[in-house]
């Protein structure tokens, strides 16, 4: 089991590195096995138009066809596109503009929001031994706190961390998080229906979610064939909704080869995460993916990660157990899985299985200790 040190790198400045006459620093060079290839074919993923689903005027034939296409993709690799999603263009434009404004700030200003060890929210440049060629800014979004007390977690974080003069920044990204929360609940409801379970089940399960918004910035790199923007991993969360710019760089490992997912205007890339895979008892799959970088152009993306409420128990509904039979994963809560990926294990293709093994071994140890007391 690999472990997470999760300690910030002293500082990442792509402009300085790219202007140096030597090659990129060795800590950014990935193993030959993981280095990106230039010969990558595009992955054809289903495009889901959810306009009729959102309006409540479902065309039975069209909906059945959409269920079939999404189900096939979710069982194979877990990726699909969503169009006519109801998210206003102005929300996307404001979020993209503010993201650029933040990553263009001097390093000293970005460091004010530096992420602390073991926490979700904050700014990060690089971690680990094989360093990703990117910067990120992450926010926790709590639908539960908004429902219970009206708390706006993203705005509050920006206000407390970045200080006066950043009110617009907090407002824009809270607005974006609210839009993604609405969209993710619609998509998760659709996925539940495609599995044949009661329409409201998944929406109610995630209604009080404790989710994550991450801004990703991938600077140009003079040796893009030696490094990665994000290393190969599956998402430990439930559902990822990605808004990427026109540059592209997302790749998915399908049938033993890397395939690209090209940007499509006015669409979101959606993929299944490990927690939803466990909730469906492995029927729908999370899939290994990565991000490559570009020699000439920077790339930006916004990723919203839908997660359950922290202490909600993740276990498959009985309808799915009747279909899939034996339980593949033990019960767990999102807070347990999050702690595992933050403090014990660096996400890769084996995260869910390693977490399951860790839970089972921990249970054995706890039972032994209880027997000795």
UniProtKB/TrEMBL annotation:
Top-level taxon of origin = Eukaryota
Q: Which reaction does it catalyse?
A: gibberellin A12 + 2 2-oxoglutarate + 3 O2 + H(+) = gibberellin A9 + 2 succinate + 3 CO2 + 2 H2O
Q: Which Pfam families match?
A: 2OG-FeII_Oxy, DIOX_N
Named cofactor requirement(s):
L-ascorbate
User: Molecular function (GO) terms listed?
Assistant: gibberellin 20-oxidase activity; metal ion binding
Q: What keywords tag this UniProt record?
A: Iron, Metal-binding, Oxidoreductase
Q: Which PROSITE patterns match?
A: FE2OG_OXY (PS51471)
- Look up the record and name the pathway of this protein: Hormone biosynthesis; Plant hormone biosynthesis; gibberellin biosynthesis
Q: Which GO terms describe its biological process?
A: gibberellin biosynthetic process
Which InterPro entries does the UniProt record give? DIOX_N (IPR026992), IPNS-like_FE2OG_OXY (IPR044861), IPNS-like_sf (IPR027443), Iron_ascorbate_oxido_reductase (IPR050231), Oxoglu/Fe-dep_dioxygenase_dom (IPR005123)
Q: Which residues form the Fe2OG dioxygenase domain?
A: 208-308
Q: Does the keyword Oxidoreductase belong to this entry?
A: yes
Q: Family per UniProt?
A: Belongs to the iron/ascorbate-dependent oxidoreductase family. GA20OX subfamily.
Protein name, per record: (rape) hypothetical protein
């Amino acid at each position: 089991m690999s472990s997470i040190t999760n300690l910030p790198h002293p500082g990442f400045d792509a402009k300085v590195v790219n202007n140096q006459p030597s090659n990129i620093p060795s800590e950014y060079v990935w193993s030959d096995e993981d280095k990106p290839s230039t010969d990558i074919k595009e992955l054809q993923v289903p495009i889901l138009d959810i306009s009729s689903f959102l309006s409540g005027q479902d065309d039975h034939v069209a909906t059945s066809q959409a269920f079939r296409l999404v189900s096939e993709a979710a069982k194979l690799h877990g990726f699909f596109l969503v169009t006519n999603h109801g998210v206003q263009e102005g929300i996307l434009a404001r979020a993209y503009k503010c993201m650029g404004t933040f990553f263009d700030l001097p390093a000293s200003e970005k460091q004010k929001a530096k992420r602390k060890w073991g926490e979700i929210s904050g700014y990060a440049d690089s971690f680990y031994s094989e360093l990703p060629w990117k910067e990120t800014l992450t926010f926790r979004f709590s639908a539960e706190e908004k429902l219970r007390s009206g708390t706006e977690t993203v705005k509050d974080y920006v206000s407390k961390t970045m200080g006066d003069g950043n009110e617009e920044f907090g407002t824009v990204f809270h607005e974006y998080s609210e839009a993604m929360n609405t969209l993710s609940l619609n998509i998760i409801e659709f996925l539940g229906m495609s599995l044949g379970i009661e329409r409201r089940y998944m929406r109610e399960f995630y209604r009080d979610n404790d989710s994550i918004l991450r801004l990703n910035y991938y600077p140009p790199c003079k040796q893009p064939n030696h490094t990665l923007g994000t290393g190969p991993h599956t998402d430990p969360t439930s559902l990822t909704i990605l808004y990427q710019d026109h540059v592209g760089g997302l790749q998915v490992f399908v049938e033993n080869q890397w395939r690209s997912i090209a940007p499509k205007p006015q669409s979101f890339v959606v993929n299944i995460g490990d927690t939803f895979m466990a909730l469906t008892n492995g029927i729908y799959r999370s899939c290994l993916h990565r991000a490559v970088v570009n020699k000439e152009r920077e790339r930006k993306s916004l990723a919203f990660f839908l997660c359950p409420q922290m202490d909600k128990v993740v276990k498959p509904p009985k309808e799915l157990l009747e279909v899939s039979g034996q339980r593949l994963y033990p019960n767990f809560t999102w807070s347990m899985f999050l702690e595992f990926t933050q403090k014990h294990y660096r996400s890769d293709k084996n995260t869910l299985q390693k977490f399951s093994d860790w839970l089972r071994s921990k249970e054995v140890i706890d039972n032994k200790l209880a027997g000795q007391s």
